[in-house]
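Task: fold both queries, return tokens.
Query 1:
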Amino acid sequence: MVAQIIDGKKIAQQIKSEVAHLVQMRIKAGDAAPCLAVVLVGHDSASQMYVTSKRKTCESIGFISLAYDLPNNVSETELLMLIDQLNTNHSVDGILIQLPLPVGIDNIRVLEQIAPHKDVDGFHPYNLGRLCQRAPLLRPCTPRGVITLLERYNINIVGLNAVVVGASNIVGRPMGMELLLAGCTVTITHRFTRNLQQHVQNADLLVVAVGKAGFIPGSWIKSGAIVIDIGINCLDNGKVVGDVNFSEAIERAAYITPVPGGVGPMTVATLIQNTLQACKYRKLS
């Protein structure tokens, strides 16, 4: 068995085209284009790269993109004041704070300062709570992107045993909630989990997000499983790989996401979907 590749680049491009069309329809109807404010603190090269990609994507589909590049020594108070200004700016639909923030700034406090209806990353406790209550509004981008990939490939996951390896607030935990909402029986594993191999071997659907290259051997993959690799790791030779040993896993899985080109593009695609949704909320309110 050789797994079918789940092409995140292709699906992300489809979504961008769909959103661009909806934006043009809004503009023709006399409505404003969606507006996303992206806040970058400091000069982390990886963060700068991600922010540049997000801004270019927004502009390419007709969004208004506002850039707020703050110095590394900005205070938490100053950052919170900027967020308050963006919260009350009626022309701004979405606010994105690029993580990680510098040492000395409380990530949780900053994310909680964003108005829930402008929280296009889906990290605010209100939005996470809505997801837990089976009434999601703005959803965390990477987990929602995974669900979209499965839907676009017509992969039925209802009733499957889903195992999430990694329990981060950004990916693992909301991923578990998304899979539960989709009808899976969900196990979330973490650093204290015993018998990780046994959990992985029982997974009909395996989602891995730990940030460790090749952490899951292909021999652990259940024959015919669906493998979603969210990890992005850069090796010393410059090669980018995931958390799953791809060359081994592809021989056992039924479906698998590559790294790069799998889940990564879907995170940005979901961000623009969320921003358009936030724009619609603003109009309704």
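Query 1 returned. Query 2:
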Amino acid sequence: MLKVDKVYLKTPTKIAILDHERKRTYVLRKDGLPDAVVWNPWDKRAKEIVDLGDEEYKHMLMVGAACVEKPITLKPGEEWKGRQELSAVPSSYCSGQLDPQKVLRLG
């Protein structure tokens, strides 16, 4: 089971992650996945991930769409569809331009 650092319930279908250093915004669009999770392996777990360098955890953050509050349970023959799309776009956004009621706060 994946360990996560923070779970956000009932999140918007579009989430923006601002990278001020690289002047880039990562946009997560999701359907059928009402929640979101944020995770970083930190030092000990980073060493267990074969394609992640021992120090690379300092420069990464995983944000993903999820169904945490109401997990999806299917009976035989039932179908369910969920979708997550991640894109990166150039940005000069400042956090002051965002609606504070719609910002997911870490911590």
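Both queries returned. Flag for query 2: The longest strand covers residues 24-31.
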